[in-house]
Amino acid sequence: MDDELENLRKKRLAELQQRAALQGSMDEQEFQQNEFEKQKKTILRSIMTTEARERLGRIKIARPEAVESIENQLIAIAQSGQLKSKINDEQLRMLLSKVLPKKREIKIKRR
Questions:
Q1: Residue range 87-100, pLDDT digits in tens
Q2: Which CATH architecture has domain 2-98?
Q3: What single DSSP character describes residue 81?
Q4: pLDDT digits over 38-60, tens only?
């Protein structure tokens, strides 16, 4: 009976240690993701005007995956040194018109 109890305790302890290790790695990943997002915001703040950032924020609500791609492109352009001045609202609108489709096609089928 004592051997069974001891084995159960060892198994439980091993499970708890495994969970703690898994939780620690998830916390580390979450921390790294937060740091990456902070760096990204800082870079975007330095390369875009306030109006352009506001527009990008509004579009992010409707199309987060498209905005993610655009943000990565803007950061890559800035890091490569191709950016001469801050991106203003007009320049962002031109970029968005090239990247995003004009309108979604809606088809209604009647039966």
A1: 999 998 988 888 87
A2: Orthogonal Bundle (1.10)
A3: T
A4: 988 898 898 999 999 999 999 99
